[in-house]
Protein 1
Amino acid sequence: MKTRRIFISLMAVLMFAIIFFGAALAALCISSNATKIPSSVQNKDARTSTLSQQSETVNVTIQAFCFTPSNMTIMNGTTVVWTNKETFVSHSVTSDTKVVNLETGKRSPLFASGDLGPGASFKFQFNATGTYNYHCGHHPFMRGTVIVT
Ligand SMILES: [Cu+2]
């Protein structure tokens, strides 16, 4: 019984250390901003700009427990690609925005990558304007925002 109590205490200390370490890492994660300049602004031909708008892709790096850039503004229709550049750690990309399935009535994230191991990537195309916050399912202190204009 005594061994079990010691084990529980050790687990509590370990859990606290993980949470504390996570918070420290989140604080170290320098907030970075990026604005994707819409190509349509530079392009005068309407048809061409629509096409280039659709094929627009922007990248987010997941490294050192950070989404970089953590805050970005993109054009409607842009695809965001998140890539895990860690050596060992898995992450995920999970939308804070929930959508309701009209058939089942269940609420689920607008996008959810599932487990992203080192080197893995996930993409999502944003087709509606708004502010989309997201987090890492494994490390909730890891947060990012995509603003679609
Ligand atoms: Cu993570």
Protein 2
Amino acid sequence: MATTDGVSNGMTEPCDVCETDTLHEVSIQLITESGSGDNAQYSREPYRVRECARCGNRDSKRMNNA
Ligand SMILES: [Zn+2]
């Protein structure tokens, strides 16, 4: 298959591993966090998860900076 720019949720972004711009598959996921400290509070936070189509490196970034 030829490489195209037509991937629906593909984004060309810099990859830390490849050290160049590569195609990334981007999705938003709700990740359950256990609260730190004495408050046993569980909150689901939206993370922007991306995976490099070239090397498979994944990273996630929290979307709201609480
Ligand atoms: Zn990469």
